[in-house]
Amino acid sequence: MTISRRDLLLGSLALTATRSVAGRPSHVDLPTSGTLDPSLEGFDRTIREFVAEHEIPGMSVAVTDQGRLVLARGYGLADVEADEPVEPTSLFRIASVSKPVTAVAVMRLVDTGRLQLETPMLDLLDLEEEIGEAGESFDERQRRITVAMLLEHRGGWDRDKSFDPMFRSVRFARRARRPPPADTGAVVAAMLRHPLDFAPGERYAYSNYGYCLLGRIIERVAGESYESFVRREVLEPIDVRRMRLGRTRLADRAAGEVRYYQPGEGKSVFAEDLDRPCPHPYGAWYLEAMDAHGGWIASSVDLLRLAVALDDPDRSPLLSRPSLERMSARPDGLAGHDEQGAPRDVWYGLGWQVRDVGEGKFNRWHSGSLPGTLSILIRRSDGRNFAALLNTRHSPKTESLGGEVDRLMHRAAAQVASWPDIDRFGDPDFAVE
């Protein structure tokens, strides 16, 4: 009897909580794609063992060293039902790794003199009619929120104190008297009626909604859609052509995009099948409204083209040295310092988590998570960058798979005694389409 790759990995799916030991692929059996330099066999083995241990359907990993693409590999299956392997060019939802993309787009506007970081957001957004409709519910402190505060998650919204508005599609659509799910306009109008959780600039609190507003600011300043501006001003200059905003429904999956897996079911937020059971990644929330904070799909190679474009502040094709330095700067107040006033070792800059590693050097990274996907993009001070994309965020071994993936990249890199002198950016497989 011949066992296909599909049969081996079907037990890994988040379609069932029951898994048989016999159904799990070992790291030896795991389908892989992409060329491997012998010097990176230890790195590759560490990834394969991780994918098998955590029963991950599919994963894509890419690595650059001093601007050269030294590894781009696919592990497991992009679509288990169709027995399609992950390719180095497979597209994945990147979730919150979209935030650095948005931050770079904002800084492009800053570099061209069209935007200033200290400008209050409401000076840029045409929302006075909506503010009037909100009446006494409008929190006047919102007028003090600047573009920089949005980028640094200091705007005043704290999802741990209240809620994450980007996952209230049905409620906000009903408030706007529109069929669900709520688009970004309905979300913004609804949030003008909610009080802030803290004074603008007072401290850090991660906010998807703040980055939603940055997308709207980009549209107002640029005079075009968020996606078209980002694709022209950020992605095309670095030869990234396939990266785009994703779609919620499985039927709308892009060519080359993986399939996503998550245990159980959610309730549809779409009017035509509202509240009916649906797979979590395909209808239980609205990806199209998450554009600027979590809506992009990309390959791991695409993400490293972006990382490499930011490596050298004097040669970046995207941003000036002052803008790149500002993106890593420690914020004022409690966002960048503890309660005693001592500088924090880790902080959130403009679109990046930042760690001070001494001697004026920094590690920068961002992770992302949505039902059915995990992502991470790491820019290390040693000139090496790592991108990892998964088509699940579930593991039977841990409740914190995202943290495990972060540690995995550094652990795998430690297996490399000497990095190869190659550059696969020029390979035909990664040619600009």
Describe this structure in words.
This protein has 433 residues and is an alpha+beta fold. It has 2 domains: 5-99 and 241-272 and 289-430, 3-Layer(aba) Sandwich (Beta-lactamase), CATH 3.40.710; 115-235, 3-Layer(aba) Sandwich (Beta-lactamase). The protein has 13 helices and 14 strands. It has helices at 5-10, 41-53, 98-111, 128-134, 147-151, 169-175, 184-191, 208-222, 226-235, 291-294, 300-309, 321-328, 401-413; strands at 32-33, 58-65, 68-79, 84-85, 92-93, 244-245, 265-267, 277-279, 296-298, 346-348, 353-358, 361-370, 373-379, 384-390. The strands form 3 sheets. Strands 1, 2, 3, 4, 10, 11, 12, 13 and 14 form a 9-stranded antiparallel sheet that branches. The protein has a 3-stranded antiparallel sheet with strand order 5-9-6. Helix 2 (41-53) runs antiparallel to helix 13 and helix 3 packs parallel to helix 8. The two termini are 41 Å apart. Residues 1-22 have low confidence and may be disordered.
Strand portion, in percent?
Answer: 15-25%
Number of helices: 13
* Unreliable residue stretches: 1-22
- The backbone outline, from C-alpha atoms, is globular
Radius of gyration: 22 Å
CATH superfamily of the largest domain: DD-peptidase/beta-lactamase superfamily
Q: Structural class from helices and strands?
A: alpha+beta
CATH domain fold name of the largest domain = Beta-lactamase
**Main sheet?**
9 strands, antiparallel
Mean pLDDT: 94
Oligomer: single chain
H/E series, N to C?
HEHEEEEHHHHHHHEEEHEHHEEEEEH
Helix content: 25-40%
If classified by CATH, what would the architecture of the largest domain be?
A: 3-Layer(aba) Sandwich
Task: Give the tally of structural domains.
Answer: 2
